[in-house]
Amino acid sequence: MKSLTIDHLQKTYFDPFAAKQVNAIRDISFSVAAGDFVSVVGPSGCGKTTMLNLIAGFLAPTAGEIRVDGHAVSGPGPDRGVVFQSFALFPWRTVLDNVAFGPKMRGVPKAKRHEIAREYLALAGLAYAADRYPNELSGGMQQRVGVVRALANEPDVLLMDEPFASVDAQTRMTLQEELTRIWAQRRPTVLFITHDVNEAVFLSNRVIVLSHGSVLEDIAIDLLRPRAWDALIEDAAFKALAARVLQQVRAA
Amino acid sequence: MSAATATAPVSPWQRAWGAYVRWSARNPALASLVPFVPLVVLWAAVAKSGLFPPVFFPGPLEVIQKFGTLMANGILPAYLEDSVVRLAAGTAVGLALGIPLGLIVGLSDRAHRVLWPVLLFFQAIGDIAWLPILLIWFGFGLTTMIFVIVYTVLFPVVLNTVLGVRSVPLELHRVALSLGASKARVVWEVVLPGALPNIMTGLRNGLGFGWRALIAAEIIVGTSGIGFLMFDARRAGSVVEIMLGMIVLGVLWYVVDSWVLAPIERATGERWGLVNR
Predict the structure, then answer these.
(1) Do the chains contact at B272 and A80, CB–CB below 8 Å?
(2) Confidence band (pLDDT; 50, 70, 90) for B273?
(3) Does B197 fall in a domain?
(4) Domain assignment of residue B87, given as a range
């Protein structure tokens, strides 16, 4: 587990149709401590996905620096694992081979990488699905595989881009609880992007509210763990925090 | 009104249809012959009716007899082998050139800008339009025929590979890079399998066009092969042999489709859910 530091990050791009420069990210600085769980929320168009693409290295920043464990990074790399809203599983690989993909790229021999993959699949209760193809799984199951695949590569930082936005409401709650459980066990450093305020408060130690490409507010979430929806949904402290974050997002 | 709620009895037709569906599921090879039965019966009936002189319109029996003699004297197997080897060699070269070219054009915007118009230009000068100049350059031989097949197979493979490469979702490139894949690895592990269903479509089209181009080339170049057999039979006025050649063409395509192409498609795109059956 390593820390993640975002230092005066900026992203400007030229819109050829409007013939002007657009400031997608004005100036963002914050850091995520090793083993911490931080969410970023904000209205659509606030730049949260652009920010994640910059941190993941899919886009090059106009200015500023991204540091993992104090070292500046550029371009995508296995130190920053990514979980996508669209799951992004390889349709031509079985669940087991999807999860084993990262170790395979590192040159881990087949028997060993399958052992790693099975261990991580068991962590999410997916051992029975190892030999299936992604199209044979439900959306919730596919995203479990997406999360497990990122974790199995043991990244320094886990970046999650609205990973539960495209599954149904009940499955989403289950996935959120599972994620907090796995996070408590493995303690990866997580940066979680979402537009769902309740989700951000439920999962995180800190919630950052983004507005027009800059940080509006940084709110500590001091709810006890383990967290479960049955208990928290009527919890006064949870409700108060969610209301506070929501207020900020709506003001953003 | 109350009778409507009772389950309707199974009619004899439904019973027969059910039996046929079950039988054809157990014997798919035999079942694929069934649609041809009425066709052959109709053919035999027209031939038998005497509407046309038998020399112009022979029946199935004559064609089967001819098949027997040409198999026995070794002409049909030898010609068949010539045609199939030419097609296989031309297709192999066409794939070996077409897939890498398609990958380059599909992956690089610059290559796409430079090569795409050229590809479209040469695609328009379809296969046999090359024959006049090829006959002058290479003469009446194997080189000319292979060139025509390679040319014919190449374009569908390239164009479909480009389409396939471009249809691989951006997220799959990104996730592979984030899992530690190099750019070359991404091509091998992500782009190629993602483009495979389209490459198969290209191969299917290419083989179909190539097969037709080969017959045309054999008719014109004329040394051996099924196309030559048919054209030679025209000179001898043997409609039986021409009909036999036509049937061989159809059967051979069916064999290539059901023994080579369809199994690959079932094991890849259809299995992965990239192609709906």
Answers:
(1) no
(2) confident
(3) yes
(4) 60-272
Domain assignment of residue B55, yes or no: no
- For chain B, percent of residues with pLDDT exceeding 90: 53
- Spell out which residues of chain A touch residue B185, defining contact as CB-CB under 8 Å: 105
In whole angstroms, what is the distance from residue A137 CA to residue A130 CA? 11
- Report the alpha-carbon distance of residue B192 to residue B176 in Å, rounded: 13
Low-confidence ranges of chain A (pLDDT < 70): none
Q: Does A74 touch chain B (CB under 8 A)?
A: no
B204 lies in some domain? yes
A131 and chain B in contact, CB less than 8 A: no
**d(Cα A90, Cα B168) in Å, to the nearest integer?**
10
ipTM of the complex: 0.93
Q: Which two tokens stand for residue B276?
A: 């709906």
Cβ–Cβ gap B179/A133 under 8 Å: no
pLDDT band at B4 (very low <50, low <70, confident <90, very high): low
Chain B residue numbers touching A76 (CB-CB < 8 A): 174, 177-178
pLDDT of res. B5: 63
Structure tokens at A51: 């920010």
Total domain count, chain B? 1
| pTM of the predicted model as reported, rounded to 2 decimal places | 0.86
Cβ-based contacts of A90 with chain B (< 8 Å):
172, 176, 189-190, 193
**pLDDT for position A27:** 92
- List the domain boundaries for chain A: 1-79+157-170+178-252, 90-154
- Which fold, A1-79+157-170+178-252? Rossmann fold (3.40.50)
Alpha-helical regions (H) of chain A: 48-56, 95-99, 101-105, 110-123, 139-152, 169-186, 197-203, 229-232, 236-251
A vs B, Cβ pairs < 8 A, gives 73
pLDDT at B164: 95
CATH code of the domain containing B105: 1.10.3720.10
Give the model's confidence band at B54: pLDDT under 50 very low, under 70 low, under 90 confident, else very high. Answer: confident
| Residue keyed to tokens 């709650």 | A173
Question: Bridge partners of A65?
Answer: A7
Position with higher pLDDT, B181 vs B27: B181
Q: Is A120 on the interface with B (CB under 8 A)?
A: no
B217 backbone dihedrals φ, ψ, rounded to 5°: -65, -40
B190 contacts A105? CB cut-off 8 A:
no
B172 and A58 within 8 Å at the Cβ level: the answer is no
Mean pLDDT score of chain B: 89
Residue B36 falls within a domain, yes or no?
no
Q: Per-residue pLDDT for B277 more than 70?
A: no
Put simply, whether A152 touches B (Cβ < 8 Å) is no
